[in-house]
Amino acid sequence: MSTHDDKHLPARPAQDRPAQPERFENPGLPPHRPRRADLDPKAAKRAEMQVVALFTLSVIASIAFVVAYFAIDPQARAWVPGIGEMNGFHLALGLTMALSLLGIGVGAIHWAKTLMPDEEFVEERHPQASSQEDRLGAGQVLSHGWRSSQLNRRGAILGSAGGALGLFALPVVLPAIAGLGPAPRREQLFSTNWEAGRRLMIDPSGTPIRAADLTQGSVFHVMPDGFVGHAAIEEHGAEAVMHSRSKDPVILVRMNPAEIKSQKQREWGIDGIVAYSKVCTHVGCPVALYEQRTHHLLCPCHQSTFDMTDDCNVIFGPAKRPLPQLPITIDDEGYLVAADDFREPIGVSFWERERPGLLPGGNS
């Protein structure tokens, strides 16, 4: 037993230390026990048919998943003993996907346990760069393994396994694709509810805005007339109003006309009053923070910053495009109204952004 004073003892000479073995002897492997399928061709054939049956079960379950996905009402109800009532659509998808995966898993295990080679061998470690003789030997081992696995003579297993693995992708991929919902219609991407003559209404009060009442530095968040307040839900429905709030919000600001740098910005505004989409061109967050001293608009999500004195061009952050400007004018009663819809798509970038029939002076 070592003591606290052992560290003060002198080290033993190298010749007195026990010799380290250059290698460990192979302890050996237990004797190989042949399986029934190794000795009896009939047993091997039964195991093969069982593996094929399991893979076929997976194929049938994957097809049943696809059929259930389209044939069963998502709101259907089912009663399960011991559980009670539950969603029948989810139950059918869960059972078919489970059977599909179960057939692949159990079939692969049964295949490995009964038909694949199970003899163990020990390979001595050798330098990383193998000799040509060793490489040829490795090729012979692989060739022997392929022949001994009998895969070249059991085409049914290969075919059923390929079908099971290939079709099992359907329960995984189909919900991901079909669950995205319908593709957006062209009018959803290229137009909003703003149109010529539609009044700008303060959100959420729904009050119209007189141009003469706006003082320099005034800021309002506005929505199109008819799409703000409880009356909008009764007239258009909750879904239409919700969709309107995803693309119609506008921020209205009155600045000193002398500080506006863009000629187009002046033409599309009224005496320094300008209106811009609140939907950030990065990922669609609401751009709602206005700094009066610098006339900067800030997106709170990722800090994209837009200069309101210069066509709302991006001066900081990940956004790549300026905020679209809403052309505005004044109606006969002095209220601010839209002169037209936005002349470019609002929000985040997407392919085919060019909109047919842009009005003269519109930016694309």
From TrEMBL:
GO MF annotation terms: 2 iron, 2 sulfur cluster binding; metal ion binding; monooxygenase activity; oxidoreductase activity, acting on paired donors, with incorporation or reduction of molecular oxygen
SUPFAM superfamilies xref list: ISP domain (SSF50022)
Domain of life: Bacteria
Rieske domain ranges (all copies): 268-337
Stretches for region Disordered: 1-42
Membrane topology: Multi-pass membrane protein
PROSITE patterns for the chain: RIESKE
Subcellular localization, as worded in the UniProt entry: Cell membrane
Coarse class of the protein's main subcellular location: membrane
Keywords: 2Fe-2S, Cell membrane, Disulfide bond, Electron transport, Iron, Iron-sulfur, Membrane, Metal-binding, Oxidoreductase, Respiratory chain, Transmembrane, Transmembrane helix, Transport
Bilayer-spanning residue ranges: 51-72, 92-112, 156-178
One Gene Ontology CC term in the entry: plasma membrane
Function, as annotated: Iron-sulfur subunit of the cytochrome bc1 complex, an essential component of the respiratory electron transport chain required for ATP synthesis. The bc1 complex catalyzes the oxidation of menaquinol and the reduction of cytochrome c in the respiratory chain. The bc1 complex operates through a Q-cycle mechanism that couples electron transfer to generation of the proton gradient that drives ATP synthesis.
Family: Belongs to the Rieske iron-sulfur protein family.
Protein name: Cytochrome bc1 complex Rieske iron-sulfur subunit
Gene source species: Ornithinimicrobium pratense
